[in-house]
Specification:
- The complex is a heterotrimer of chains A (330), B (161) and C (773).
- Chain A has 330 residues and is an alpha+beta fold.
- In chain A, strand 6 and strand 7 form a beta hairpin.
- The longest helix of chain A has 19 residues.
- A 5-stranded mixed beta sheet of chain B has the order 2-1-5-3-4, sandwiched between helices.
- The model of chain B has no long low-confidence stretch (mean pLDDT 95).
- In chain B, a hairpin with a 2-residue loop joins strand 1 and strand 2.
- Chain B has 161 residues and is an alpha+beta fold.
- Chain B is built from 5 helices and 5 strands, in the order ββαβββαααα.
- In chain C, the strands form 7 sheets. Chain C has a 7-stranded mixed beta sheet with strand order 3-5-1-13-10-11-12, sandwiched between helices. In chain C, strands 7, 8, 9, 14, 15 and 16 form a 6-stranded mixed beta sheet that branches. In chain C, strands 18-19-28-29-30 form a 5-stranded mixed beta sheet, sandwiched between helices.
- Classes of the chains: A alpha+beta (330), B alpha+beta (161), C alpha+beta (773).
- The interface between A and B is large, with 36 and 37 residues.
Chain lengths: 330, 161, 773
Amino acid sequence: MRSFAYVKAADVEEAVRAVAADPGAKFLGGGTNLVDLMREGIERPDTVVDVTGLPFDTVDELPDGGLRIGALVRNSALAADRRVRTRYPMLSQALLSGASAQLRNMATVGGNLLQRTRCPYFYDAASACNKREPGSGCDALDGFNRSCAILGVSESCIATHPSDMCVALAALDAVVEVRGVDGVRRVPLTDFHRLPGDTPEIETTLAAGELVTAVELPPLPVAANSRYRKVRDRASYAFALVSVAAALEVRDGMVTQARLALGGVAPKPWRAREAERVLQGGPADEAAFRRAAEAELAGATGRQGNAFKAGLARATIVATLRELSTGEAR
Amino acid sequence: MTEIRMKVNGDVEALDVEPRVSLLDALRERLGLMGPKKGCDQGACGACTVLADGMRINSCLALAVQYDGSEITTIEGVTHPLQEAFVRHDGFQCGYCTSGQICSAIGMLAEHEAGMPSAVADASPLTEAEVRERMSGNLCRCGAYNGIVDAIMDVAGKDGR
Amino acid sequence: MGVTHDTRAGQGEVRAMSVSQAEATERATGTEKYVGRAVDRVDGPAKTTGRARFAAEHPYPGLAHAALVHATVARARITAIDTEAARAVPGVIDVLTHENTPPMKPPPKVSFLDLSTLVSGTTVNYLATDEVHWNGQPVAVVVAETPEAARHAASLVRPSYAELPATVDFSAEEPRAVPQKGNLIAEAEADKGDAQAALAAAAHSVDLTFSTPPHNHNAIEPHATTAVWEGDRLTVHEGTQSIAWTRRHLAKRFGVPEQDVRVLSPYVGGGFGGKGSVWAGTLLAVLAARVTNRPVRLALTREGVYHTVGGRTPSTQRVALGADEQGRLTALIHTSVSRVARTGGMPEGITAGSRHLYASPNIHLRQSITRLDLLANTFMRAPGEAIGTFALESAMDELAWETGIDPIELRMRNEPERAPIGGQRFSNRLLREAYAVGAERFGWRERDPRAGAMRDGRWLVGMGVATAYHPQMRFSAHVKVRMSADGQVVVRCGLQEMGMGTATAQAQIAADELGVPLESVRVEIGDSDLPQGPGAGGSNQTASAAAGVIEASAKLKRALLALARRAPGSPLRGRRLEELEARDGGLYHGGRGQTYAEILAAAGRDHVEAESKGNMLGLLVRTMNDRRKWVKAAIGAQFCEVRVDPDTMEVRVSRWLGVFDVGRVINARTAASQLRGGIVMGIGMALSEQTLVDGRSGRIVNPSLAEYHLPVQADIPRIDVHCLDEPDPTTPLGLIGVGEVSITGAAAAVANAVRHATGKRVLDLPITLDKLL
């Protein structure tokens, strides 16, 4: 890790100004991803502005019945929050399925949003990676791409977004509050991350110096019946091959409301709107769930190592919806 | 160089560290506390687990400067029935992951006590399946996992949980 | 633990066999109070308080820190190496490259007359040439005042390469493999009858091709070296499985007398074979210390371990089995291909288990190798057998499906009386008992033999078995045992402790041999200044050292008796050792005798010491003779239950039982732990572990614990381990090493359980869910 200057921000405006003014500056939260990437030489800031002292570490009720989650709330604290566990269980489950307890105690909500991919070629400075080194190529296209994406990919990048939390947030219509030098902006979570296109190095719609200050969850009664299901290569402490965040309301055997998002399959948390459209108003049965899953995965483009993800995603969607519709755990 | 002060195992320590120095390296190389181990230096094994203000964290991904003013407990500052239980139940072989396992287990028991849920279930009671999930952030290549669970269940049982 | 089995077939015959004079002296003589018990580890308190110091944890004044620069191409000449930016980093002391570093002496040629020549990890003389032989090879070393500066500066060193054609893709090269040569201790091929013809004529047959990926040891302690030169004397703190050979190797490479090199290795943070050889990091730390005239610590990064310490070879294997209507084998064909490097590595005995596991009139075994431009492979827990038994035992299971015979019954029908190839007798082989006990304890009868027929809620349930097998090895040990006037005993031998409970087991043995309380025995290990011990490999250490402890203890008692007999009024006057009992801290004949302390006090001595020198050449000759007569091995039955999610095909191991015949158990607790550890590693091998080598570049793509998936706590169910605890009549104390046997058969037991749960036979490890979807 190269040397850098460390600034502990005492004031949000000062922090935002400092980073906006210096292209070599970065915000630092829990450090669980950034410190690792700095040690690997992938992130090389000159200045690190530590924002963990800023007062964004509470979860508060919103007047409309939603929740406002400070960007510095630790993952473990958010997962344990009673309101989250009752009103948005998929979010608590998603958080608890991520990383390890130690990392969840460190990682912040804001940092989780800005996690970078775990594509092995991104992590290896000796490999070609358009995200790490724009224009260098992509060794994952014909290399080990078992972990890579099948939706929303481009010829320049097939890396996935690794967050579990964001998958739940995508399903929950969360809104991200960001603070820049020009003031506050609110971005729907589903618009926060970008697809790679020709510029996979640009991963979010954040402008230089913009700081995530909060995530807001709207009131969403359907989310009380929700579930996050993560499929991975070992029982714990591994990134998702495929994950599904789903909320379902069924009345008289018909789906009255559905929320669905996928992880592990796309360069961003993938809101499955096509599947939701197919589900909405239809029967809450296995065949309908399958149709919805197939509709969402119709555009999947797998490669040799990751083609299985389409089938796995379909199966996981169906299993998660079945569980929500029958209340029957696996 | 940045000057920081931490209370480490009960003693206040003043340190001058470069911002890039991890809490793990500060403890090991500057304070000579070799209990916390470096197994991967990237948050993937848990051998570096210490308690920061009572919370278990991976000290390898923590910059020491971020923990200015914190209270840190390493295995050297631990006196806990788990230590004897680890010996009795053979919760280790080579011993390299053990400091992290024990610190992690102490933090885990506190989390459970505080009602923190896990991916397996909502907090209580502390079953073996719960312990296995909650302790999955600590790898043991010798495969002493059964003994670790036994040691923890033994101690947790005695505390009346 | 430890049930008695009187039903053992052929027991009388085994008991009646003659035991050589040399072997007889190694048998236990004392009354056994500690051997067999579950004794707490003597180093338990040190390891649970953080006091145990590992190789990277020794402070020295002026200690400098080193970091490696790794090549990023597979094969090349270095045309230039730019170190300017690295040298400009504050705190950098030196940057060592092939352009500025005095060369070490080249690695010695392998010779069976000097077994220390086996510990060269590779044949490359680092920093002595401009050649790059694998992607990841160290090409420079940065030495700096802090680890942070060293690592950062290392990232700034810029080598330029003239790339050369490289062969790095095992699957592409595998068809061009060449026959592997056998050696003194491992045959590479065997033929008996005409297996091809018998296979073609068989009533039932299976013919399967398997593959296993490369694996890495991933001891949680990354390799680290602290090297200190004082003039021409060298002290090295190193986590190693071979203290003595490492010392000799370093002496040769640096041109200093062996006695001027001291290797200290009291604690090894996991080895599994990965710390059995001398790899680049050790050499370059010592070299850097010499060049910079500073004490130097080189703690490898996790990625650095992958790039400089070899792992397990990948393999492809064919197993074809023919059987008659009753399931009796008529043909057994097992062929394998593995890889070594152009710059070192060891061919593995992948078909070794197939020499000994099943009676078949027709057997054909062949092993082939490819040589690639990759880092040399090395021993990893049960090299050969771990992956060979996966294929053989999966194929046997498939034959059970083919014939409709219960998989345990099928194995029992093919249990040989004598070694199928050589015709030797088995010194011990309680496989029938292992399966009988295991089937009972595991509830094998409740297994519905149909595939996919058992369920637990939505989960598919499957049960599988496989046989575990690992040969017994022995080396010589030089052991000194000292009795002090206060009755305290010190056992000294340069043994290694990487989690086996080395000192604990030898303390138990010494305490029993001398008849003293366990608390009064201290075992000193982990230092090349101690009498030379064997390396820790091939599950040999406990047995090898036990022979020395027993012999040295006998000599010590004899010396103490001689002292007593010279003392006027001693109740032991006129007694022979054979008439005496060592107990209560002394020697007794009936109620009469003396404590050792009394003997020493009467003689005016403050201590007496005895030693067993060990004779490697003699042992080697004996071993060769023995091999014509006996097959000595650990054997066992692995029982696995899995649950498979029918939607996602995630596999979870839900129950495990291993029943083992490992001869006499010394420490019931640590032996069980080691056996469990092998099973855990076997579960990892079955379900998740693989080192990904990019076939285009030869680069390891997942050199991290985040992406190489070891089993975590949540992956591992309760593992029931049972030892039959029947002494092997041909080994010291009747013990057989337990370090490796339990990984063998483990992956097959999982694969067979998955086959039962899902109907799918997975031939390619690991059994990830995509192979079941």
